[in-house]
Design brief:
The complex is a heterodimer of chains A (350) and B (262). By secondary structure, chain A is of the alpha+beta class. Chain A is built from 9 helices and 23 strands. In chain A, α2 (94-104) runs parallel beside α4 (138-151), α3 (109-122) packs across α4 (138-151) and α4 (138-151) packs parallel to α5. The two termini of chain A are 27 Å apart. Chain B is globular and about 65 Å long. In chain B, 73% of the residues lie in helices and 0% in strands. Chain B is mainly alpha-helical and 262 residues long. Chain B has helices at 14-33, 40-44, 47-80, 86-93, 101-112, 119-124, 133-159, 162-169, 174-202, 206-211, 222-232, 234-254, 257-260. Chain B is built from 13 helices and no strands. Classes of the chains: A alpha+beta (350), B mainly alpha (262). Chains A and B meet through β7 and α2 of A and α8 and α9 of B.
């Protein structure tokens, strides 16, 4: 049982096929105009493709071209949509907003309100229960919108850039709420932020110009992108390890120091460190006595990237100027030291 | 304390503006100076006046209800769907807005009157509409309906469909969405439209006298009574006119656009 999606839309040059296994979250990653929102619109029933088939848990929601035509209306698809704008119903209280889904599916008023309270508690928004949406901040409203979508008990949750309109300072709280509710749920998350994909999704599907250019387990795709496009888009260095309480200890014993973002990892628990290739400096010899993190590694490739050169090793990449690469006389195969300031490294609990 | 200066308008423009305002307000002042205040209560509570006032309020209330029942679905179809000929249909539906009411009354007469399009069918069924209180309500509804459709369609379009889309994704069927989301969100526009329709119905004269006639207690509404008393009992006409002015002012106070807006 899972979500199967296949659709072609000629005038938007879209030809996309992917599936979401039961209970997993798939991130659709891509730049603006890559076709992510079109995919969501087709799945939710707001747009009919030229040809395609969409099914959820074995039930055909849409079939155009080939076989009996099926096009279930949005309210009959059991797919809830969460967009970047919370769109809470302004005339209803927070609690009634969340109770709207169960109520619409024929549950009693009392049962719907109980369900609403449960989900408001789950996203940490019980205290807003009696308020009108106009009295909430953007981040609070979005958490309520998450609760509202979940209370409708959808078989599939579509999330369209849920963090995009939220203040940076409250994004971690919202991300945490999403992580809790997405666990064990079948969901599709549209985003252009690789970090959201890393923290929320089991698998990644990378879209470019209406085509799937790469797909696979999130960490694999983000850490070792096979397509250049995915590399440019993701472009994050990711290091997995265990949290010692102060450092991240990698499998080879190297320690990484960074800033903990969001909830603190448990000591001995799994964590991941991320940093941008642009914040990495490359040396022939490890600088002595520096407070920086440094990784001794072997260069596997040098790719031009506009005015920059991308220096790649097995697990990491660095963006440096062409001049610097020439000065250091870098060639594939030599051993160098990648160095990055602790303040440029973000550590997340996994 | 700072005062923000608005963009300047030409100074001379105040003159025609004041002239226009005077033109509208002066007659209202004039009519209130003509009122026979000592006998005001007696004048507006004579049998014929009371009958006309009660009939007016009843029929206007009924036609406003009818406008809501018919106008809400019409506005929804016009605002939320698209089909060939929709633009033409909208123009035709709004025709009573620009049609002289007498013409509207004639049109109704030739539809529902004894010799009208549906008159024979109705007569066979034993229904006689023309020159009855029902005819008054129909005439008022005919002229007032476009006001409700127009203001509600505007509110529906301004509101957009984003909330409806979300509601459907939460599993709400179209009827549930309409009842719990669409209608509550356009309620201010609906109220404004209903108040305007009521006002238009209350002032209806031409279509009513053509289609329903002027039978005391049956079809003679307040405007008809005022017109009739104008020669026989000018004092009563003036007193009743003032009543209508007061009602109109109250209606404007309720339905001011800035209140109707969100």
């Amino acid at each position: 049982m899972s979500f199967e999606f296949a659709a072609r839309l000629v005038d938007r040059r879209l030809d996309v096929q992917f599936s979401v296994p039961d209970g997993e979250t798939v991130a659709l990653l891509g730049e603006n105009g890559a076709g992510k929102s079109t995919v969501l619109a087709i799945a939710a029933g707001h747009l009919v493709p030229d040809t395609g088939q969409v099914s959820l848990d074995g039930r055909v929601l849409l079939r155009v071209g080939g076989g009996n035509r099926v096009d279930l209306p949005p309210h009959d698809r059991e797919i809830a949509l969460l967009s970047q704008d919370p769109l809470l119903f302004p005339h209803l209280s927070v609690r009634d907003n969340v109770a709207f889904g169960p109520r619409s599916r024929g549950r009693s008023r009392r049962a719907s309100l109980t369900e609403a309270d449960r989900w408001l508690d789950e996203v940490g928004a019980v205290e807003f229960s009696a308020r009108k949406p106009s009295a909430l901040s953007g981040g609070e409203a979005q958490r309520v919108a998450v609760a509202r979508a979940m209370a409708a008990d959808p078989r599939l949750l579509l999330l369209d850039e849920p963090m995009a309109a939220v203040d940076v300072s409250v994004a971690p709280v919202l991300r945490q709420a999403l992580r809790r509710v997405l666990a064990g749920r079948t969901a599709v998350l549209v985003t252009h932020d690789p970090l959201d994909a890393l923290l929320l999704a089991d698998r990644v599907v990378v879209l470019d110009h209406g085509q799937v250019v790469e797909e696979g387990p999130t960490r694999e795709v983000l850490a070792r992108p096979r397509s250049a496009f995915a590399a440019d888009l993701a472009g994050l260095n990711l290091l997995n390890g265990t949290w010692s309480g102060e450092h991240l200890r990698l499998a080879d014993g190297t320690t990484v120091t960074g800033l903990v973002t969001g909830p603190s990892p448990e000591s001995g628990g799994q964590a991941v460190a991320t940093f941008r290739p642009g914040s990495v400096a490359v040396y022939r010899d490890a600088p002595a006595g520096s407070p920086r993190n440094s990784f001794t590694t072997r260069i596997t490739a040098l790719d031009p990237l506009g005015d920059l050169i991308r220096v790649r090793s097995k697990h990491l990449s660095a963006h440096i100027t062409t001049q610097a690469a020439a000065d250091l006389d870098l060639v594939p195969g030599i051993e160098v030291s990648f160095s990055v300031k602790a303040t440029e490294v973000s550590v997340y609990r996994l | 304390m700072t005062h923000q200066r608005a963009a300047a308008i030409p100074r001379w423009i105040y003159l025609p503006a004041a002239l226009g305002a005077t033109f509208v307000l002066l007659p209202l002042i004039a009519i209130s100076t003509k009122v026979d205040w000592p006998h005001f209560a007696a004048l507006i509570s004579s049998d014929s006046s009371r009958a006309a006032l009660v009939l007016s309020l009843k029929t206007s209330g009924a036609s406003t209800a009818l406008c809501v029942l018919l106008g809400v679905p019409m506005a929804t179809v016009l605002a939320r769907t698209s089909f060939p000929g929709q633009g033409l249909l909208r123009s035709l539906v709004l025709l009573p807005l620009v049609l002289p009411p007498v013409v509207g009354g004639l049109a109704l007469l030739y539809t529902f009157g004894r010799n009208g399009l549906l008159g024979h069918t109705l007569a066979v069924l034993g229904i006689r509409i023309a020159f009855s209180t029902i005819a008054v309500i129909m005439a008022q509804t005919f002229v007032a309906l476009p006001f409700l459709v127009l203001s509600l369609e505007g509110a529906l379009r301004t509101g957009g469909q984003r909330y409806e889309v979300v509601a459907a994704s939460l599993g709400a069927k179209p009827t549930t969405v309409f009842r719990r989301i669409t209608l509550p969100l356009v309620m201010p526009g609906l109220l404004a439209g209903a108040v305007l329709s009521f006002a238009r119905a209350l002032g209806e004269f031409g279509a009513t006298i053509t289609f329903a006639g002027s039978l005391q207690g049956v079809t003679r509404t307040l405007p008809l009574e005022i017109y009739l008393q104008r020669e026989g009992d000018p004092d009563a006409a003036v007193a009743l006119a003032l009543v209508l002015v007061v009602v109109a002012v109250l209606i404007i106070a309720i339905a001011r656009p800035e209140r109707a807006g969100r």
